[in-house]
Amino acid sequence: MAKDVLCEVNSCRFWDSGNKCAASSIYIVAHKEAKTSDATDCKTFEHKDN
């Protein structure tokens, strides 16, 4: 498992400096045969304004 998770979505409340994800866990949904990042969705995302 990766020690650091990088994320460039700075509108997410879990986004931290250095493009780090500060969420305690990550939930990602993907098609069974995902071949590109567009075929996945990060369900951990929460907009900063929420």
Automatic annotation (TrEMBL):
Protein name, per record: DUF1540 domain-containing protein
Domain DUF1540: 5-45
Top-rank taxon: Bacteria
InterPro entries assigned: DUF1540 (IPR011437)
Any matching Pfam family: DUF1540
Biological source species: Paenibacillus brevis
